[in-house]
Amino acid sequence: MTSKTKLDSIDSTLQKEPLDVSEIRKDFPLFESREGAISESTHPPITYLDSAASSQQPRQVLSAMESYYETTHANVHRGVYAMAEESTRRFEEARSKVGRFINAPLPEVETVFTKNATESINLVAQTWGRRNLKPGDVVLLTIMEHHANMVPWLMLAAEIGFELRYLEITDDGELVIDDLEKKLEGVRLVGITLMSNVLGTINDISSIASMAHRNGAVVLADGAQYVPGMPTDVQALNCDFLAFSGHKMLGPTGIGVLWARKSLLEEMPPFLGGGEMIDDVRLDGFMPTAVPWKFEAGTPPIAEAIGLGAAIDYLEKIGMDKVREHELKLVSYAMNSLKERFGDDLTIHGPADPSRRGGVLSIAYKGIHPHDLAQVLDEYGVCIRAGHHCAKPLMRRLGVPATARASVYIYNDHHDIDVLSEALAKAGSLFGDAIT
Amino acid sequence: MTSKTKLDSIDSTLQKEPLDVSEIRKDFPLFESREGAISESTHPPITYLDSAASSQQPRQVLSAMESYYETTHANVHRGVYAMAEESTRRFEEARSKVGRFINAPLPEVETVFTKNATESINLVAQTWGRRNLKPGDVVLLTIMEHHANMVPWLMLAAEIGFELRYLEITDDGELVIDDLEKKLEGVRLVGITLMSNVLGTINDISSIASMAHRNGAVVLADGAQYVPGMPTDVQALNCDFLAFSGHKMLGPTGIGVLWARKSLLEEMPPFLGGGEMIDDVRLDGFMPTAVPWKFEAGTPPIAEAIGLGAAIDYLEKIGMDKVREHELKLVSYAMNSLKERFGDDLTIHGPADPSRRGGVLSIAYKGIHPHDLAQVLDEYGVCIRAGHHCAKPLMRRLGVPATARASVYIYNDHHDIDVLSEALAKAGSLFGDAIT
Amino acid sequence: MSGLEDLYREIILDHYRNPRNRGELDTPPAKRIEAFNPLCGDEVVVYLNVEDDKIADIKIAGQGCSISQSSASLMSQAVKGKDISAARELIRSFKAMMSIHESKLESTSSEELDEDQQVEDVVVNPEAMGELAALQGVVKFPVRIKCATLSWNALAQGLDEIEEEANSSK
Amino acid sequence: MSGLEDLYREIILDHYRNPRNRGELDTPPAKRIEAFNPLCGDEVVVYLNVEDDKIADIKIAGQGCSISQSSASLMSQAVKGKDISAARELIRSFKAMMSIHESKLESTSSEELDEDQQVEDVVVNPEAMGELAALQGVVKFPVRIKCATLSWNALAQGLDEIEEEANSSK
Lengths: 436, 436, 170, 170
Ligand SMILES: Cc1ncc(COP(=O)(O)O)c(C=O)c1O
Ligand SMILES: Cc1ncc(COP(=O)(O)O)c(C=O)c1O
Ligand code: FES
Ligand code: FES
Description:
The complex is a heterotetramer, with two copies of chain A (about 425 residues) and two copies of chain C (about 170 residues). In chain A, about 45% of the residues lie in helices and about 15% in strands. With about 425 residues, chain A is α/β, with parallel strands linked by helices. Chain C has helices spanning about 1-5, 10-15, 65-80, 85-105, 115-120, 140-170, and strands at about 30-35, 40-50, 55-65. Chain C has a three-stranded antiparallel sheet with strand order 1-2-3. In chain C, α2 (about 10-15) crosses α3, α3 (about 65-80) packs parallel to α6 and α4 (about 85-105) runs antiparallel to α6. One pyridoxal-5'-phosphate sits at the interface of chains B and A.
């Protein structure tokens, strides 16, 4: 009876795990090797800890795209024949799915497909920005922004001559917003990442957004890291623009999203010119069509939108609350177990409180250069990213040229963290004596 | 013996066909139904005659992408681990393949990946155009351009104030170039489609380009329709920019190409800002990286580039000469057999000489509205496109609101043309009495 | 071929071949309204003569496909001589016949449609629409719905403008 | 693990742990050259003192990974006291060792490499390069090749600039 009780309690612990990772992993062809005949392979099984750069894709996503190509691929819009209609239907259905996923008030109208989050932000800069920003205006960013939310503004500022201002961070990797009211003076647009791809910090933007709105500024949220791992609600976030990418949330490459309030989209001039985005073209002018198509010149990434739709189906089946809970548990476990094992030899950048972070851990270990660390880890099948993570200004603030970043997603579990830990120890003993 | 000889001669006729279409069709899942159990299906087999809008994709392309996703997907560039390196290698390998396919002098350096041909042309307008064009300058286009090569210039002209000028066409659908020297006065850029997506006309641009170059203008060739069906050599074409899309040449959606001379690419300012396209970013400025990456901000369409690479492998295995020969034969057959059957009830827009055209046939039949025609044809499984084909100024020149367009590619054969012909006859009898 | 026969019913082809009320009216007194279908570039022009809150005369010009042309012709027949309020009622009914299906067709593939539910949802009885019911088959072809509603949108816009002008001149 | 052991040979780790010629030189007379690796943000700074066409002194500063640091250290040892022409010869040999492999690795996946052909193509004999041959393992890791060549590019640039200045002051 006692042993039975014990088993029960183990079972219930297991059941308490928010996700059944071993079930999930079966949907990801890449992970078959770990479950399969490892000994036959000369390579160690993959421990994929680089989802913040790009996630893996489940079979469901790949087969949604494949089935599209195999049965009903045709160019969207304007096609009269049934296959083209079906292609259009699936494409537009994906659009509503994406819009509903982030709780857009008007999912079908406010969801613009781009090729990636970077293009989404550039779209805002080149249309809203070019139309509204004047010399003397201010765009307020943060020093933890990804280059995707810096360079478009730097380019436009060089052209127009407005000012760029930045929110600083604390040593714990949190935004400094004590002096926000003052910082907001003259600001027309606030651009903030919802989650830092280096520090993991989650930025609560809704109060920042309220203050920004009171000051007459619009708010652009970079959701590239946040949307894949958190329940996202643009209405609760209180932002005006939201940009994110498909490939970081189980979707394919080649697809990104810009959500924006309808009123803003309608005011904005078109972005790229060409087919699909016009109502009429004459030799001396043209009439843009309705939103969201006004911003989608040329043949859109059709299969990719459908793939992203399938990714969202997959995530919603799991439940984004569960995804968040899972990442939180895993990050807590990683922070605890790594700290316990390596003590002061290991530093984790960003907030000490796991609940303030997403699934990203930037590590400094024993002074070993991040690229060397990643190289050694790769030998053990552990995939982490080393570099500046497209956040050079943040690297300067942290005083490092680069970091080694491990990131988790729905297919990672405690075992992956243990493998990471073991591989770190190996790197430590290889390079150990180099530390002075 | 006589019958044997007869058989032999039939065989040799068959062998003379440039392509073995029935073999090719086996690679395209969509066409399995025609070979398969048609009677079980409630739908007639698909006669796909809309490749000019978007082609179908062979298994080889789909499986190249799938195998990429299943075995080695990771974000490209900067990744130290083996999987990320392999991902980068395949991506960059696709780039060289594409560059070599169009005989680029420097395939790895001069080939920029975009999301479609439309973006490629916008890139030229927004970078080369914005930097070089001034009020009083002229951009010379043709009235047969696709909106993709009109609207970007209309947008920029509205901003900068340069002049747009157009080459006219003859009633046979050929460019009027008698007065080219005069038309070139003040021209900084000439933008010409290599093949009209409505008329099928192939424009021999090399002599136009020489004259343009003598006048100090650069030449942008829109290869969206031409590259899929013709052996393409940017050096022989003598152009400075070439834009085309993957999805019209057996590749996936979400990928386009801009080729440009290295010297031009290097002079051009960046297009979109973000990750991958910089060497350094500071809070007050940035340094763009080397070409071609300078023009590829954010995570590129990795799987799509690899898919396009596989499409090119497929086309090269067939041989682009053969592809051209096949399309020419099919178009000749179609023009002859349709004319023979329908006489004056049927008009084919564009050059009467099939060798002056690509695989595109815009048809006017018995005054039946193109959308009605396409609708009726769909009932017989025949997929053609009805509409303005994103060429409204050309529609106005032709004096029609729309045309019905059938287009062929490597998987089409005489049988498809016969089915088209039969379906046209059915439409004729349904609507026949409407003609007054 | 059943879908196609549903779309191109004999009445539709008849109105396409022999459009009723084809022509123009002098403006003023008539009102001229253009409706443009950006999907295909077709255009329907409606000329409206309203007297004593009645559609005294109506003419149709423009060019387009069999659906847009026959729908305009059928419409002209149905509203000519009618009170504005009755015409408005008809517009509502017609658009309901089209749009209920339209939104359904957009969110679910046509095979998944629950026939019973459709009938229940329809606010208007197609039988009550006379010849106009012939256009019901269009809803199976979502891209063609715009063709059918083009002239009706023009009519609605025309009535709006006429009533607005009447109100502001009061 | 053989690849990794090839990359991080004992000599390399030794030079990483105990870099030779670390420090700075007064400029002038010394020349200071920075080399920057945009892929990672690392930087090697080379200080060069050339007297009578000889590298009289060389110091290395900056920061980076074990490969870039050890390569710089090994380089400083190898060229210190050498004639400019001998140093240039060594640069050529070193870059050949890296770049021949580099172009191969870019066009074919590493498994497809034909070992025999590789050896044939190599213009230099790694044996002749002494301790520098330890860096040969880097070529199996294409993204790290830039690490190894960083300091060598800086040295080449420094020698170019010095000779140019000498020529123009003649
Ligand atoms: C001549 C021509 N140019 C440009 C385009 C635009 O291609 P995409 O929609 O792939 O950007 C097309 C495609 O319809 C075309 O036919
Ligand atoms: C916070 C953040 N913003 C933007 C991006 C850019 O995403 P993409 O490269 O898909 O455009 C990334 C991806 O690295 C990111 O982490
Ligand atoms: S196709 Fe133009 S209105 Fe019907
Ligand atoms: S990783 Fe920066 S030089 Fe090696």
